[in-house]
Design brief:
By secondary structure, this protein is an alpha+beta fold. The chain has a domain at 8-38 and 46-143: Rossmann fold (3-Layer(aba) Sandwich). Helices cover 54% and strands 15% of the residues. It has five helices and seven strands, in the order ββαβββββαααα. The chain has helices spanning 47-57, 129-138, 154-159, 173-181, 187-327; strands at residues 8-20, 23-29, 85-96, 99-100, 106-113, 118-122, 125-127. Strands 1, 2, 3, 4, 5, 6 and 7 form a seven-stranded antiparallel β-sheet that branches. The longest helix is centred in the last third of the chain and has 141 residues, at 187-327. It is elongated and about 210 Å long. The chain starts with 7 loop residues before the first strand and ends with a helix.
Length: 328
Amino acid sequence: MELVENNERIIIYDLEIENFKSYAGKRRLGPFHKSFTSVVGANGSGKSNVIDSILFVFGYRSSRIRSKKLSLLIHNSEKYPNVQKCSVLVEFRKVIDDVIDPDFKLTISRVAYKDSSNDYYLNGAKSSFKEVTQLLRNFGVDLDYNRFLILQGEVEQISQMKPKGTSENDEGLLEFLEDIIGSMKYKKPIEDLTKVVDGYLEQMVEKINRVKVVEKEKDSLEPSKNEAVKYINHENKLNYLHFLDYMIKLKELEQQDSETIAIQQQLKGEKQILETKIDEIEIQKEEKHSELNEVQKISNPLIKSIEAHKKVVLNLERSFLKAKQVCF
């Protein structure tokens, strides 16, 4: 997230340098102008150390500040032989529409010790290199490509550069400008994407070749396909004729089935009539059976009486015959 708007910028307002390189004790440089400041002086008067002090706060390595290690940045002279630390504080102000904002103040300081350790501070509170550099980036200070800074001797070095580097690790004017405008950071992603695109192109060429092979095979199979289509069409026509034949037979069967149903309905009606007559006959049979039982109840005694009388008559006849024989 950017902490400044389009019409805003931050500037270095002043520096507080203490025991840093050629500056013994505490020195305050500034305030600097919001647009242009020139540091002038004789050779050896400490002009370059002003820039070095700013680079020190911005987290540059000691080698970029013309020193082998951090402890050698601490002032050392006959008058100040045993100084234990050095520090630089940079005070920033915000400029809005070319006017310094009186309500904004930001201080960043860095302290280096004899053992080459160091500490960072934001507005007087202890911080870290990561927090400091991230804050500066958020304010638009380009710490990645140093577009805000050109050191002594770099102009001459730039003018003597070859147009383009001859190898990957060689830097020419093109590579230098790409660093300045920030396009160099896209080089690796572009190379990676180029490899990916090349891979896709190879796959595309391979698939195109496969398509061509398949098209040749398809063309060679075209006569066989046409013959197969012709056969399938004939087969479909034959199946359609079979279907029509089956439909005709089905209609005939349905018609026969309708006639059969009519006959069945007629037989069912006749059966119901016969069943009704049979039921009536059964009823009559039951009635006659009942009458027969009544007749039998009446006739059985009569039959028994007749049988008894027959026996009596038979006995009388026998007695008569015997009597007749005796008489004659």
